[in-house]
Amino acid sequence: MGHQIPGxxxxxxxGSDWIDEGTLSRSRSGAPGPLGMLMSMVIGAAxxxxxxxxxxxxQEWRRNNELEKKLEAGNLERDTPRxxxxxxxxxxxxxxxxxxxxxxxxxILTHLMELNKTNKIKWVDQDDRGSHxxxxxxxxxxxxxxxxxxxxxxxxxxxxxHEGTHGVWNKHHFDGYRTKWKHxxxxxxxxHPKGEDLIAEETYAWENELxxxxxxxxxxxxxxxxxxxxxxxSTLGVEMMVRGAYDGWMSMDGIK
Length: 256
What we know:
Structural class: mainly alpha
């Protein structure tokens, strides 16, 4: 995402030419015609090969496949509030070292609970790990996969805390951090106040996400992306990782 002005925090808008609208498929659909059918078969999204004239069987396969997609989407929509509530309860039970303070923990988890009551937290098919826009949180769909009777909740927990941090960032609780950030970055703030505000917020959210991840690693959570960030934290620092990922934000002050 470097060298460009990104959209909303932690959000990346997918092009319409990648994910089929209205589906949960992460595979590109084949183009119409024989070549498209061949491409679909290669990526595992095509019906079984049929002899000429067996259109009825092919159409039946397609109907069943669409029904399965709708059923899967319906089950996810039904289970989401319960799974989010389960994840919030597990987060509350983590040792205090997973949080900066009990006050901040309660602030973030209360915000997540309020969103969940009105079904405003969802797993969706998107590229970014998470997004907080328009009063809703979305989480990348693959982070929901697994057994929710076992440990699947852990995959979404760091993202929930990250996005929950964005949701409460305007609270007075964070005034001290914002004030210190402005003091420590006076020169940059003079030229890029909007960009620095965004970098400060994102840095704080990344740090919170990594704290939760570190607390869950001993419980068996594996997340290659967060593992890479954690490895670079000691040498590069979270702030510099964020600046590298979102350097386009420093140009936002020139936008009218």
